[in-house]
Write a structure and sequence with these properties.
Blueprint: H1 4-13, E1 21-25, H2 29-38, E2 43-50, E3 54-64, E4 67-68, E5 74-76, H3 80-94, H4 124-128, H5 138-143, H6 150-154, H7 172-186, H8 190-202, E6 206-207, H9 234-239, E7 262-264, H10 265-276, H11 283-290, E8 294-295, E9 303-305, E10 310-312, E11 322-329, E12 332-339, E13 344-352, H12 363-374
Antiparallel strand pairs: 1-3, 2-3, 2-13, 3-4, 5-7, 6-7, 8-9, 9-10, 10-11, 11-12, 12-13
Helix pairs in contact: 2-12, 3-8
Length: about 375
């Protein structure tokens, strides 16, 4: 983050948070509450879980203006969605519905191939590990919230300077195109695929469409600069029904898989349990998701990229590797990480909190992970 030192100084000058919290289950809440308050969280929900269920569950502050975060509050999880999408793809691969290493151009009505390497096939494995040579160019950024066809964006500045398989460029567009590939390959909308093969089998209340969410969906705000209105207006998003959500549309549905998944804490726990040990997915599939697929050392020396998953190795946070993903959007910061060795996991969702970070992982998420590991 540019101007990190100034951002932290301004943040430190703001009044410390005093949001009320509720400990729904467990103990050891004070350390986590203090971290949220120190990082000026407006609202948050946290859970520590193991194979059997939630061990610690707390909520803090506001979900919306005048509405407290509750145990059932739903959050738009931003880039945690990438790991959700990866879990879906791995399940479909196990069932023989898709092939991680097949050429996706065989399904799509347009090509994902890099103009500098037209003979190199692009695969689901590459899209989910950010090695497909696809980037978030200016055309993609300008198209956010608009109905610009994927084919149009690919014809502009959506390809990396390096060739496919020769580098890692973290790309929302690249992961988003996964949904388009699945829709054309299987003839079903991405949302219905997720419901049938992932959410319903795991008992998750989740959706890639805010208008499908039942109950309270949380707003998202930026701490700095302060604003009078939320950056992510959850009520407006829930009321804005999207047509065609239940039909395949490979030109338009690239804006779902990478950041639009909405769920509550209990659903995130169910996903974390499924990704922590074999059962829903095989041991081989879990190893594939966690295996190093690309280096992120240029952006974060503690992280390696797997299939929709970060491998985190930081002795200052944990004595052994953790696996998961972080999400950041509209001022909210989220994460879901698992510790397969100790068979525990942590979920943290927020409505607004400090976005300070030196690398990829934010200060607040590192502090929460450290407190979790030190409290064992």
């Amino acid at each position: 983050m540019r101007y990190l030192h100034l951002y932290r100084l301004i943040l430190a000058a703001l009044p410390a948070g005093k949001q009320a919290f509720q400990l729904i289950r467990g103990e050891r809440a004070d350390a986590f509450v203090n971290i949220y308050r120190r990082h000026r969280a407006k609202g948050a929900a946290l859970a520590i879980f193991d194979d059997e269920g939630i061990k610690t569950h707390l909520v803090l502050g506001q979900a919306r203006q005048g509405t407290a975060v509750s145990e059932d509050t739903v959050f738009r999880t931003a880039s945690v969605s990438k790991m959700v999408t990866a879990a879906l793809v791995m399940k479909l691969a196990e069932e023989g519905k898709v092939d991680l290493d097949a050429d996706v151009d065989r399904a799509l009505p347009y090509s994902l191939r890099h103009p500098g390497a037209p003979d190199v096939p692009i695969t689901l494995r590459m899209l989910l590990s950010h090695t497909a040579g696809i980037q978030d160019g200016q055309a993609y950024t300008r198209a956010l919230g608009k109905d610009v066809p994927a084919e149009t964006l690919l014809a502009q500045d959506s390809h990396t300077p390096h060739l496919p398989g020769k580098g890692c460029e973290y790309s929302n567009f690249g992961v988003g195109l996964t949904a388009c590939v699945l829709e054309v390959a299987l003839g079903i909308s991405f949302e219905l695929l997720a419901q049938e093969w992932l959410f319903e089998p795991l008992g998750m209340k989740a959706s890639y469409y805010p208008h499908q969410v039942k109950g309270t969906l949380a707003d998202a705000w930026r701490i700095l600069p302060p604003a009078k209105q939320p950056n992510f207006d959850a009520k407006a998003r829930q009321q804005a029904e999207k047509r065609g959500w239940d039909q395949p549309d490979p030109q338009a549905h690239y804006s779902l898989a990478q950041g639009n998944c909405c769920m509550d804490i209990k659903s995130a726990v169910k996903l974390g349990q499924a990704l922590m040990k074999p059962g829903f997915l095989s041991e081989d599939s879990l190893k594939t998701m966690r295996a190093p697929a690309a280096s992120l050392s240029a952006r974060d020396p503690s992280l390696t990229q797997g299939i929709g998953t970060f491998l985190m190795e930081d002795k200052k946070v944990s004595p052994h590797p953790l696996y998961g993903h972080q999400g950041m959007a509209y001022g909210a910061v989220h994460m879901l990480f698992m510790d397969p060795i100790r068979r525990e996991g942590m979920v943290s969702f927020t409505t607004a909190v400090s976005e300070a970070r030196r690398y990829i992982l934010t200060d607040v998420n590192k502090a929460l992970l450290r407190a979790w590991q030190e409290g064992k």
